[in-house]
Amino acid sequence: MWGANCDSWSEWQKHTSRHGFVTPSSILASRPALVQFPLHLSSDKRLQTLERMIYIACAMLNQQRFYIENFGCQMNVHDSEMLAALLQSHEWVQVSDYHEADVIILNTCSVREKAEQKVFSRFGVLKDQKVERPHVRFILAGCMAKAWGIKLLRRLPYLDLIIGPGMLAKIPEYLQYPSRRYPVVDTNEPESVFSLAPEMIANPQHHSAWVTIMEGCDNFCSYCVVPYVRGRERSRDGHEIAAEIVNLTRRGVREITLLGQNVNSYAGLPGGFPALLRKIHEIDGLMRIRFTTSHPKDMSDELVQTISELPKLCEYLHFPVQSGSTSILRKMRRGYTRDNYLNRIDTIRRLIPDVALSSDFIVGFPGESEQDHQDSVSLIESVGYDNIFIFNYCVRSGTRAADYPDDVPLQVKTKRLEDLLQRQRRIVMARNQEKIGMIVEVLVDGPAKRGVSLWTGRTRQNRVVNFSGTAAEGVLCSVLIESASPNCLYGRIV
Known about the structure:
about 500 residues; Rossmann fold; pyruvate-formate lyase- activating enzyme; six-stranded parallel β-sheet; 19 strands
């Protein structure tokens, strides 16, 4: 009854050792008489039951392997980490080469068109695996799954599972069953934040870790798909978050970054985000706390004051403005003006003098004039950011801005983007040169990728430092800065 032309368990074992990996489909194809059992079920039920039994046996004999490739933001990376831990808890083995995998998962991003095109291109390479190894299953997960849904099958007809970011925890459940004739699409709205019990979290391989505290967004900026693909705001319980961080610190994590589309809106504890920061600050063994991302309209005086009072909170703030023009900010539905934003910057710098600021800018938003662009230029020069991320505007289906005429030519967008980048490079170079001769605190990440006998790490202000001397990953060092480039500081341990 064992299939593959084998009449006993021992014969099947010999068959698997002789021919390598055996799949349920190959067994059923070679021995259809298996559907004669068990007798008390209908023929369809017998087949389903038998498929399930054979699939479990195959999993035991040929430990199932999965491969994950990530596209997108920090939260996507962390989602992939948690998904890997979840699959491993179900006895799956993670591999680094997709040629060895039985399941290939791409965790995707849909915020910008370029991210989606990368996914389509990647599947163009991966699809040959279906021909060479028909048992392989393809899963497209994440924001792109939610944005496209079943329409993905028009371009990627070989997908087995399309699953949104809020449903990732169900992937092990779907993988319990053999490949279906038709793909499964699960893009339901999530009711909670994807997280794992502390004891299930994979052993950290680093001294830094990400912790999701909330997901979703209620702001509905006119250009942004996040509320549509990540859903409305949902916050994790503060005690659950603290338990996860305690677990991480016991295993060597010294720095955590709290993640959320808008952490300022966190509502999982009375007192909101400031209360959560104070609770986490009390955890022993934790050296540094960071968070991202903050929406300027929700940055309260109380939150700024809290950051200034807690020594473990790093003096670094990602504060995305998107445009320096009030008229464009209004069309973007950002909820603040240029003056509102600059007033927030003044408060932050008054209460946190050593703060480093980064931001996001969109160039070429519909209706953006040359004067609007110059408003962004002047804002960059006025604030003096330590880092900025700049993107050309691209139309995202389903957003309010998709109805606006995309009337800024690509060559103009590209020119304006390069203009902002060049100005920012000069600002960053000047800021980094100011650090020469200073001694800064660095949390060591490990050996530097370039340079013999050099270490690399980050300051509290999130600046990268390459340095010489005796160090170890996860320890704090005092480093004298001796030179600088636009992207890095250089020095030696003192």
